[in-house]
Amino acid sequence: MTDVYTEDADDYETRLSALERLRAELARLASELERRVQASASDVMDETRFLARKAQHRINTQLGTSALVAIGAGLALGLLAAALFAHRTGRER
Question: What is the distance between the alpha carbons of residues 87 and 72, in angstroms, rounded to a whole number?
Answer without folding.
Answer: 22
